């Protein structure tokens, strides 16, 4: 089996590397010459645990290569995956499909013999049909089946998610294409991974429904957290108490500063647009989008209130990426929180283990520090925005001696309130009672 993977972003690069690990011959294609040169030199464009080693191993074994030459890669492939970006279109929130359509046209001009063209990018319902039309127009005799095969991997655990998925979804009614897909995913058959064969449009919708459901689950617990703070309940216990019900499940019930990243914000918005377009408004999702957007400034207010105003004060921020184990800053709650704090007159000192390079291009006037302790030096309060492991076991005595006042606003609930009180802190978290130094 030979695969051409078009696009070397998160999904493309991880999927390409993982398919090669399955024993498939994979060529990853990108237009970005320097990105391909770097990949050839073993340099990854993203921070993803385990990726560099996996790529190196499969390049060495001769199963994985990189190129800017799309026609050559496509000509020799049994399956061509479209894994290019589908960002939110400026202005209306629809998924921008221009990269997908350009890729489809270029693929159409190069295919040779029976080829399965697979959309792995997150694309709205009906995109597969449009890709099919583009290919038929460019090369009416092309022997092509267009299949939807959405990806469910998470940044930070992408390789594990690809290798041991909860399920694989394959959208096509063509038996010939199903057989190609079956052989690509053969190693997962051996581990009895459920494979959902369905129609193309159903597969396309499954991807949006999954991400939107998870975003809704997070938003639900975030609102419950707000309620907990007022009625004196503990959101962690509520999450455990409901999550142990197998029908609800414990995952994605961690209250926090709101979801961010390259997927949930854009996919919830795109699904709202799809519903509106066909006059089936998705009112729950519309509300989720609205609550999550407003949540970020609520989090800034929480910090401001705890500090009794931040004008002229210095706030130490630990973690700026949208979640740990990634350098991705896209739609990170920290972007809004930091801007609001600065707007209220605060000076920001910040540290993130992997995200600072990208963050520097997106946040102005931040004093970037070398580690958590340097960040806290002379600050009036510290706020944890991203739950990196290294922030989970801070030396609290040292932290207290560095801060001007022992105040922590923990937006990820990684500390125990009682322990923080005994350590001499005023500690404010999400959905749990505020504690003061005991
Ligand atoms: C998400 C999905 O989890 C993947 O299944 C999907 O493949 C991917 O989008 C995609 O469409 O490509 P990802 O964006 O990498 O993955 O990150 P998540 O782990 O889902 O976290 C998203 C956001 O939700 C983060 O800001 C995280 O902090 C937040 N979150 C997550 C919570 O606030 N609480 C939780 O309980 C879980």
Low-confidence stretches: none
Question: What is the number of helical segments per DSSP (H or I, 4+ residues)?
Answer: 18
Strand adjacency order, main sheet: 3-2-1-4-5-6
**Overall residue-averaged pLDDT value:** 96
CATH architecture of the largest domain: 3-Layer(aba) Sandwich
Fraction of residues in H or I helices: 40-55%
List the ions, cofactors and other small molecules found in this model.
uridine-5'-diphosphate-glucuronic acid
Largest sheet: 6 strands, parallel
What Rg, in angstroms, do the CA atoms define?
Answer: 24 Å
Structural class, please? alpha/beta
CATH superfamily of the largest domain: NAD(P)-binding Rossmann-like Domain
The CATH C-level class name of the largest domain: Alpha Beta
Strand content: 5-15%
**Count of domain modules:** 3
Note the gap between the termini. 65 Å
Global shape: elongated
Number of strand elements = 14
CATH fold label of the largest domain: Rossmann fold
